[in-house]
Amino acid sequence: MKKSLGFLVGLVVPAFIVAGSMTNSSVAQEKAAKATATQKVLLDGDKVRVYEVTYKPGAENTSVPSSSSRVVRALKGGTIQRIYSDGKKENVTYKAGQVRLNEPGPGYTAKNIGKTQIVLYVVQVK
Fold first, then answer.
1. Is residue 69 domain-shared with residue 119, that is, in the same domain?
2. Domain of 98, in residue numbers
3. How far apart are CA 101 and CA 72, in angstroms?
4. How far apart (Å, rounded) are the C-alpha atoms in residues 71 and 69?
5. Region 108-113: what's the mean pLDDT?
6. Per residue in 58-109, pLDDT tens?
7. Do 67 and 24 belong together in one domain?
8. CA 68, 63, 81, 98 torsion: positive or negative?
9. Same domain, yes or no, for 119 and 63?
10. Would the pLDDT of 3 be above 60?
11. Same domain, 8 and 59
12. Domains in the chain, number
């Protein structure tokens, strides 16, 4: 009886350890997935590209286009921090309904530094 109990414990304990490590890695993957801004392309034509970008709190977008003009309308406002390749940081606050013209310039990473979701409607001239 003691041998079979010891054998059973010897099998069950490692199984729980493996299951726990798998859970931890899947939770880390979920957090990494949540940390990226989502982009939904609405129109991709010859002259313009129209898309909606959603930033959850803490989410980043590392591929902000910089070679063309963009008209940006905030559907849900908030504060985004732009981080340029030279290390310079700039905070940009969008109010819901606000429209901006973003001229071509250096590329940057955008991060939602607020506590609410930000949704931007973007029309990019090609």
1. yes
2. 38-125
3. 6
4. 7
5. 94
6. 999 987 767 899 999 999 999 999 999 899 999 999 999 999 999 999 889 9
7. no
8. positive
9. yes
10. no
11. no
12. 2
d(CA 102, CA 8): 65
Note whether 77 and 49 are same-domain residues.
yes
Token code pair at residue 122: 């973007």
- The pLDDT value recorded for residue 30 is 45
pTM for the full predicted model: 0.71
pLDDT of residue 8: 46
- Pairwise CA distance, residues 79 & 73, whole Å: 14
Tell me the DSSP string of 46-101: SSEEEEEEEE-TT-EES----SS-EEEEEEE-EEEEEEETTS-EEEEEE-TT-EEE
Question: Half-sphere exposure (CA, 13 Å, Cβ side) for 107?
Answer: 7
Residue 69 shares a structural domain with residue 107 = yes
- Return d(Cα 111, Cα 35) in angstroms, integer: 9
For residue 51, the domain's CATH number is: 2.60.120.10
Mean of the per-residue pLDDT values of the chain: 82
What are the structure tokens assigned to 58, written together?
A: 């803490």
